[in-house]
Each structure stands twice: as C-alpha cells, then as structure tokens.
Amino acid sequence: MITLLQVAGSLGLFLFGMRTMSNGMQRAAGERLQAVLNYMTGNRFIAVVTGILLTILVQSSSASTVMVVSFVNASLLSLTQAVGVIMGANIGTTLTGWLVAAIGLDFNVAAAALPAVGLGALLVFNRKPRHTPHGEALIGFGIIFLGLSFLRDSVPDVSEYPELLEYMRLLGGHGLASVLLFVAVGGVLTLVVQSSSAAIAITLTAAFAGWIDYPSAAAIILGENLGTTITANLAAIGGSLSARRAARAHLIFNVIGVVWMVAVFPAFLQLVDAIIPGSPYPVEGELGALPAHLAMFHTLFNLTNTLLCVGFVTTLVRLVERVVPGTEDERVEGRYRLPIVGEQIHQSPEFYLVEVRNEIAKLGEVVERMFARLHGVFEAEEDDIDKVVARLEREERLTDEMRDQLTEFLASFSMESLTKRGATDVAAMLRVVDELESVADSCYNLGLLGQRRARKRLQVDPTAVPDLTAYLQLISRFLAFIREHLKERVTPEEFAAAMAMEEQVDEGRNQLKRDARDRLQQGGDVRTELLLIDMVAHLEHIGDYSLNVVQCLAPPPAGGSPGTERQARAWFARSEGG
Known about the structure:
The protein is an all-alpha fold. The chain is built from 24 helices and no strands.
C-alpha cells in the first residue's frame, strides 16, 4: 500500500509539473496563442503542424484533441481540418517520451530540477510581471524532473519479486497474442490515469526497472495511443454531429495505426534499433538506451501513421460520415447550448476565448435577424405582425439563453488564469453580450408595440412612414456595422464612424419626435403618435446599445497602458452596473 501511494504521489507531482509548465508556456505566449487558429484553416499539412504545436503548448494530446472537438462543435473548424490537427496532436504528444529519454531515468535530480526551480522562482518573484509566466514554465519543468525521480525511486526492485517477474515473462514471448495483450494493458492504463503523458512515464519507468521487456513496453505504448482517444469521445457526447464525427475520426485514425503496426511489429522494432544507438536489452545491468528506443518507437509510429494517412483525409472523413450518420439539422430550433466541451477548458483559456468570440458573433447575427423582421412594422396587418412577434419571442428566449451561458462561462475565468490582454477581452465580452441581449429585448418590445398598433387598428400617418423607414434603415446599418466587427477590435477611424452614426441616430430621434408633436398639434391621433414616440425611443436605445458595443471593441483609451487589469475590472464593473 505504501508503494502504491508513493507511485500515486510521484505521478501527481509529475502531472502537476506538466500542468504548471503548460500554463506558464501559454501565458508567456499570450494572445499569439489565439493566432494558432488561423493556421488550422490552411491545408492538411499545415493542420498537422498546427496540431503538433498545439499539443506541445498545452502539454496534453487529450486536452488538444478535446479542444479541436470543441472548435468543430462551434463551427470554427471543418471536419477535414480537424482530422489534420488531430494527426499532428498524436505526434506532439511524443514529447513526453523524449523528455524522459533526454534526461534519463538515472539522472541526478538535484543537478537538473533544483536549478530550474530556483531560476523560475527568481522570475516569478521578480517585480516585472511579464517574467512571471516564464518562471512558472521553468518551475513546472523542474517539478517534472522531481516527479520522474520519485517515480523511479518508488518502483520496487524487480529482484525482490522473482515470482511476479517470472509471471510477467510468461505473458511475453507469445507473438501476436502477447502484443495484443499488452496493447490492451496500455489502453486500460491510460483510461485509469486519464493522461497519456502519465501512462507513458509509468511505462518507461516500469521498463527501466526491468518489470517489462522492450517489446512489451512498445506494445503498451501502442495501447496508450488508443486509450487517449476515449477522452475526446466522451467529451463529444451531447455535442454537434460534426463534434462526434471529429472524436470518432481520432479513434479510427489510431485504430488504423495500431492495426498495421501489429502486422509489422517485429520489423518495426528492428528499424528503431537501427536508428537509435545502444541496445534496449539488459547489458551488464545497464538499461540506459531503453527510454530512447521507446521514445523513438512512439514518435516514429505516429509520424509514419500520419504520413500514411494524411493523403487520405477526405477518405477518412467519408468513412467517419458513414460510421456516424445524420444531418446537422438535429439541433432543436430555439434552444441553445454553448458548444464548448470537455474538462480541460481552464487549462487553455486563451484558446477558448476565440471560440467565445465566435459565439458572440452568432449572437450578433441573431440580433440582426430580429431587427430585420421589424421592417414594415408600422404598416403590417394583424395576422402578419402576429407571426413576426411569435418568431421574435422565440429568438428573444434564445438570446436570453445565449447571454446566460456565455456570461456564466466568461465569469468562470479568474483574472489570474489569463494574460492581461485576455482579462481585458473577457471583461469587454461580458459587456458586449449584455448589450446585444438588450438590443434583442428592444426588438421584441418593438414587435409588441407593432402588434398593439395592428390590433387597435391604429393607422400611421402616410407622410410619417418614409421617415420612420429611413430611421429603421439607419439603425439596421449600425447593427450590421457592429456584427461585422464582433470578432476584432475596431480601428480609431471605425470608432469615429460609429460615433458619427450614433449622432445621426440621436438627430433622427429628435426629428421624429418633433414631427409627432407637430402632427398632434394639427389634430393627429393621440394614441398613434404616442405609440410612435415609444417605438422611436426603443429604436434610439438600440443605437445606444450599439455604440456601447463599439466602445468595448475599441482600443483602450489614451493615457493608460493597454490591457491593464485595472481597466479590465473597470469594464467588468460597468457591465455589472448595466
């Protein structure tokens, strides 16, 4: 029991180091992480390279694959692009094996870990905050050393358990049956520890200690490639059809690789032995070359499998579409579910901000559609306006759901887990979501006012209709402007154009109110004119909300450093205050 607890503690330390190093690397990269998405939309080879870099940054193939599934779920990536990124993620995850092979399992931990932790601590406690992420990455790297060292020391000496060692030897040496058995062991091991990196570390340590031989360890690594696909498939449950297909593509791709590898397993091990110097088998009690052989086996397998399959991505996509049939129209109209899946969200918040921004753009599209339904609201008959209001009511409920889920998700991020730019963006997004939902409310209220006009048989003065229609068109252009800029910051010139547009909205409101008062003085219908004044007020509010959105998308004001935490908290406070 003590030995098991020591192994568990060593693994925990190793995983904590991986997570700390990953967080530091991501925060050091800052907003450039979000630019990775732009490369995902290139050809399949660029997608593979993107997958490699993505996995190295987040230090987990499971996390990067779940992230890709989430991006597909949100329509940021197509299934074809996602398959390429997944292939690259398999290659990127081999970094763990090379870390172990590079530092060895017989290293002096103090010589490597303590200097890294010491230098990292100096950077973390430095007065310049920009050095903190680099310090965290170094501390995480040092903790990885410590975890591997403790894992090596906690594995019992094989000579103390001759009966168990003999049993392990009996399991091997049976050709295909033994390979399949240890492939299954690798899959189960990855499922249990929920980390392919930890599973690989356990495998290398056990092989180094002599508990399993070289071929058995290689077969277990094959199984770990299968086991790591389960996380993404579980995350895709309840997601869109494309998300489920992306997760299944990951599984099928790895199954294809394991099938052909099992067929050429002995010859492939000989190829690895020819590439890596030194023997992977015990030579006078020395096992120093074994980690390098296993790391090369892992890398060469994933690299070869990717090279074999990358030319058949389209074929793989068609196969997945047959395995997971269906249409994208499965989603129930009027219901919303934030298309972000998985448990690794807060390990890579900067990436998910891209996805949130995409969802906010969708909210902007819904709002713009709602406003477009209002054209003709001053003249429509009762039956027509009743249909419009019913549709507006459904869409208004949808915007409520989108606001609630997006706000809850954004509020779940702590300022400390984000870069300064990321914290500022989160605060701005919170307010943008609230303002867009307010526009949706005004659209619905305008529909209700139009419905009241039709039911009470109120006739708008024909001379007022052209001016009211022109005012609607002005607001429509303003909404189109903000919808086009929801995924990026506006330039100073664009901000000036928005300010000018808002001034036109105010001037139009004043003119329409003066016209209504003039018609009242000339004997116009009181109820009709008062209702029109209410409608104009709601339209002007939409212009105000639109300007508030543009202000959130504008560069930080002059006189303050861009993206400071103080500004982010101020934005958040304004959004909370409405």
